[in-house]
């Protein structure tokens, strides 16, 4: 388990946490910090604790993408009549 973020787990044969290494390189963290519903902070702790804000925007982005997809389907349906 990672010493910086408890949501990062990896095999003991690796010299360091590969997920933290990805983050240092500016690459996507597939295990973002999620809000701690009980305490109001970000789960995962450590240096990545402030990374919970982008995760909160995910449902909004998903809704916008879904709305755009529906709009595109409607345009195609009307255009093919």
Plain-language structure description:
The protein is an all-alpha fold and 81 residues long. It has one domain (18-79). The chain has two helices and no strands. The chain is elongated and about 60 Å long. Residues 46-52 have low confidence and may be disordered.
* Total individual domains: 1
Would you tell me the structural class of the helices and strands?
mainly alpha
**Helix fraction by DSSP (H/I, runs of at least 4):** 40-55%
**Hey, roughly how much beta strand do the residues contain?**
under 5%
Please tell me the overall pLDDT: 76
Poorly predicted runs = 46-52
Distance between the first and last residues' Cα: 57 Å
**Gross morphology:** elongated
* SSE string, helices as H and strands as E: HH
Query: How big is the Rg?
Result: 19 Å
DSSP helical segment count: 2
